[in-house]
Amino acid sequence: MSEPIRFLYQGQLRELRDVKPTQTILQHLREDLRCTGTKEGCAEGDCGACTVVIGSLEDGELALRAVNACIQFTPTLDGKALFTVEDLAQPDGAPHPVQQALVECHGSQCGFCTPGFAMSLFGMYLKQEGRAPSRCQINDALSGNLCRCTGYRPIIDAARRMVELPPVAFDRAALAERLRTLQRSHGFTYAAHGQHFHVPRTVAELAALRADYPAAVLLAGSTDVGLWVTKHLRELGDVIYLGQVAELKTMHEQDGMLEIGAGVSLQDAYGALAARYPTELTELWQRFASLPIRHAGTLGGNVANGSPIGDSMPWMIALGSQVVLASSAGTRVLALDDFYLGYQKKDLQPGEFVQAVRVPLPQSRPGLRFRTYKLAKRFDQDISAVCAAFAIVLDGETIVDARIAFGGMAATPQRAAQAEAALLGQPWTEAVLTTAMAALGRDYAPLSDARASSSYRMRTAQNLLCRFWLETRLHDPLPAQAVNAFAGA
């Protein structure tokens, strides 16, 4: 039996019974509610003109996250609160400090992108709670917003200015209490226009639904599936949404690994991982898509999608990560590099889904030398031409384990077997490096496309292996800034 979608917007409880299950939040705002402040620029989560803030309960606590409304489906709002640019003005009509700062700092010209910038700044304003943001925090908060007019400097000035203005309170406790009244104790199904949108609450419910509806689309963060609708114009049919399964949103350490549930957001997963691998993963975390995409997308979804140009898989494979697969018949664990069988082909049995990923922790591998590198045309929010990950384990000066993985070099995220063989049992010297670089040329036959040519990919892959040696060699390793200077020479 179909149940309505229930969420809070503009202080009111909304109940929806007849919207299409794949209608986006942006479409609902503009076409149904006639709230046209939120704009459509790209309809694929790249420009940020559609940015909104979603409030939800996570482990009983209120979480507020900026996301792209253009690729989020309306039924995912169930049990949550939606905030748009129309919510920012104060009850007396005075502008919010975010809006006032944009005015004072001349942060808007044509104005089309301004509502999205305002909502990204609003998300940061709530997080900062009056503290002055650093330039890095500002850059990260605005990484998903594009502007063709201002050159960004006035918007960055506004980000600094907004916390200097008289503060506006946000009653988190009251919102959390209202959201608690909307939480369901069981899974539910929303049905309309001949489609079913199933929302399980437990892994057991999810497994049963997967067995009953094997052809249904599994939806996690919608950062890829959303584009199937907005760009490919696909009809998805029935959908099973993982976003309300609390068991999939947990992280814990066990047996030298960090187990990350398939529903943990990319932002939270990378935050936990970068805390354990600060030198190796912090920059990749900052460069992985944009903050709104990381808020919505999940690490488990990234792994399940298995794109050959995905940035998570190479370093996870290099570390020897595992994937936990579940079904109504139970669970099984695979090495992540065994999960990918070919382009868009995974070792998934009927009824199976990704339940979690397991990442080895640094203390479990004494002697580990590990680095990740991303090459793209832009620093922020760009798809990799090449993503590389290198991990070796040294016993004294001898390499006793070597794992090298690349994205963008093959039809799947793939290890470099011949380069690894050239390293095993050898000292970590320049001569061995040269042999491994040559072997790398036999491991891949990369394609040429709009992002890079085959020859560029191969040359840079070999050069990244050289950079890894420069940073991790035993005698006089170069600091990162010196390596960067060397690479640019």
Brief overview, please?
The chain has 489 residues and is α+β, with helices and mostly antiparallel strands. It contains 18 helices and 20 strands. It folds into four domains: 5-86 and 173-241, Ubiquitin-like (UB roll), CATH 3.10.20.30; 91-167, [2Fe-2S]-binding domain (DNA polymerase, domain 1, Orthogonal Bundle); 252-364, Uridine Diphospho-n-acetylenolpyruvylglucosamine Reductase, domain 3; 368-488, Enolase-like, domain 1 (2-Layer Sandwich), CATH 3.30.390.50.
Verbal overview:
- This protein is of the alpha+beta class and 489 residues long.
- The chain folds into four domains: 5-86 and 173-241, Roll (Ubiquitin-like (UB roll)); 91-167, [2Fe-2S]-binding domain (DNA polymerase, domain 1), CATH 1.10.150; 252-364, 2-Layer Sandwich (Uridine Diphospho-n-acetylenolpyruvylglucosamine Reductase, domain 3); 368-488, CO dehydrogenase flavoprotein, C-terminal domain (Enolase-like, domain 1), CATH 3.30.390.50.
- It is 34% helix and 22% strand.
- The chain has 18 helices and 20 strands.
- It has helices at 25-32, 97-104, 114-128, 135-141, 153-161, 172-180, 203-212, 225-230, 266-276, 278-287, 291-296, 299-305, 312-319, 336-339, 417-423, 430-443, 454-472, 480-488, and strands spanning 5-9, 12-16, 51-58, 61-68, 81-83, 188-192, 195-199, 217-219, 239-241, 251-254, 257-261, 322-327, 330-335, 340-342, 345-346, 353-360, 368-375, 386-395, 398-407, 414-415.
- It has a five-stranded mixed beta sheet. A five-stranded antiparallel beta sheet has the order 10-11-16-12-13. A four-stranded mixed beta sheet has the order 6-7-9-8, with helices on one face.
- Strand 3 and strand 4 (61-68) form a beta hairpin.
- Helix 2 (97-104) crosses helix 5 and helix 16 (430-443) packs antiparallel against helix 17.
- The mean pLDDT is 95.
